[in-house]
Amino acid sequence: MDSAAEEYFTSRSMVDVRELKENNPEFALVLDTKDDKLPNTFDLAYKRIPVHDVTVGSYILVGAGEVIFCKFVASS
């Protein structure tokens, strides 16, 4: 019984790790801003950069259904 439980939880944890890796993006869509003002929502201009190059204060574009993991301050 113990080995069956161990196999179950080991396989379940492998699935969880795989899902985390699949949801880890390599690139971010960073919105272009002018003079540190909010981006124009009618004509969004952005560039695709590696997530490691995203800087504090950047505005990022997140599509519907996409997931991001970060510390942030939301503003409206």
SSE diagram, text form:
Elements: H1 2-22, E1 27-31, E2 46-50, E3 60-61
Antiparallel strand pairs: 1-2, 1-3
What does this structure look like?
By secondary structure, the protein is α+β, with helices and mostly antiparallel strands. The chain is 28% helix and 16% strand. The protein has one helix at residues 2-22, and strands at residues 27-31, 46-50, 60-61. Strands 2-1-3 form a three-stranded antiparallel beta sheet, with no helix packed on it. The N and C termini lie far apart (54 Å).
Shape: elongated
Q: What does the oligomeric state look like here?
A: single chain
| Estimated share of beta-strand residues | 15-25%
Mean of residue pLDDT values: 79
Tally the helices: 1
**What is the N-to-C order of secondary-structure elements (H for helix, E for strand)?**
HEEE
| Order of the strands making up the biggest sheet | 2-1-3
| Relative helix content | 25-40%
Separation of the first and last Cα atoms? 54 Å
Main pleated sheet? 3 strands, antiparallel
What brief labels describe this structure?
single chain; 76 residues; alpha+beta; three-stranded antiparallel sheet; 3 strands; 16% strand
Quick structural gist:
The protein is α+β, with helices and mostly antiparallel strands.
